[in-house]
Design a protein that fits this description.
Layout (H helix, E strand, L loop, with lengths): L1 E5 L4 H12 L3 E6 L2 H10 L2 E4 L5 H9 L3 E4 L9 H19 L5 E7 L31 H11 L3 E7 L2 E3 L6 H12 L2 E4 L5 E6 H14 L5 E3 L3 E5 H12 L3 E4 L2 H7 L3 H5 L7 H7 L8 H8 L4
């Protein structure tokens, strides 16, 4: 199988490229820089240099491959809503390119769009009797709204919901952001008692899930890349405090925003999620290290 991967030089995308190649597939990886192209080529894949927002480039990649995995996303949180709306357009463009084919299109969302006070499952916000979270309330939901539009046109589309922490060496996501805040403030903190829970998965396990979807094309259309249902944020803060040799503090009221700044909503987020349906549908079993173990092992090497 030849697979078109957007964001092929990114943290998750590069792991997917590696996993696909190891399984014997060919990869066409979309990258936006010469450096990214060199990285993809060094991994053994073919690079396509271009902008993920260029519909002509998307069509070229999609039409010349047997499957599409879309992981590219602009993580500049200062313009988060705009980036989510841009992702909507990318998904719709990929869907248009695949309309009339049975090629699988795998797009990326996040379990953070769901919060029910209990572990969310793959059918949440997907069944008529569930509360649907729209992009007017949660911007990241735009990706799933786009997937629904694409599916209504007969495209074979799948959605992978990633947890707040997709971790591993080279991570530049939420945990490194919390580490940066702790360094700046001189203490590692959590919101209130830190009982809000973040699901997590190692990047290698997430990559395997994407590959299994294009290989097996299950009847389940929304899948959860969740290895740990929910790690208490207090535990994350304590691991960071230990790694930086800083005190751990609980923040409440106005002190939450003072400490975390723009990241306060994410630090407060609680979105435990299960992956039972995903595991049953694909035989997927995460084998990578758990989040706290990974933080202790490779987040403070410098």
């Amino acid at each position: 199988m030849r697979v078109f991967v957007t964001g092929a030089s990114g943290f998750v995308g590069s792991a997917i490229v590696k996993d696909l190649l190891a399984a014997g597939h060919k990869v066409l990886g979309l990258v936006r820089s010469d450096k990214g192209a060199a990285q993809v080529a060094a991994a053994g894949a073919e690079a396509l240099l271009g902008d993920v927002n260029d519909t002509a480039i998307l069509r070229q990649g999609a039409t010349n491959c047997d499957a599409v995995i879309h992981t590219a996303f602009n993580h500049d949180f200062s313009q988060f809503k705009a980036n989510c709306e841009a992702d909507r357009k990318v998904i719709e463009a990929l869907g248009e390119a695949l309309t009339g084919t049975d090629k699988p299109l795998v797009i990326t969302s996040g379990v953070g769009i769901l919060s029910y006070g209990r572990p969310a499952n793959e059918n949440d916000a997907n069944e008529d009797d569930r509360v649907t979270v729209g992009s007017d309330v949660v911007p990241r939901a735009a990706s799933e709204e786009a997937a629904a539009v694409v599916a209504s046109k007969g495209v074979n589309v799948y959605t992978v919901r990633l947890p707040p922490s997709v971790h591993g060496a080279g991570d530049h996501g939420f945990v490194p952001m919390v580490i940066g805040i702790a360094k700046e403030k001189g203490e590692s903190a959590c919101v209130n008692e830190g009982l809000n829970r973040w699901p997590a998965v190692h990047r290698s396990d997430a990559a395997t899930l994407y590959r299994l979807i294009v290989e097996k094309q299950p009847s389940l259309k929304i899948l959860h890349a969740v290895a740990e249902t929910g790690v208490p944020f207090r535990g994350i803060a304590e691991a960071i405090g230990k790694g930086l040799n800083l005190p751990v503090a609980s923040k409440s009221g106005n002190d939450i925003a003072t400490h975390f700044g723009w990241f306060a909503n994410f630090a407060s987020m609680g979105c435990p999620a299960s992956s039972g349906k995903t595991r049953k549908a694909l035989g997927w079993e995460p084998i990578g290290p758990e989040l706290i173990e990974d933080i202790q092992a490779c987040y403070f090497l410098d």
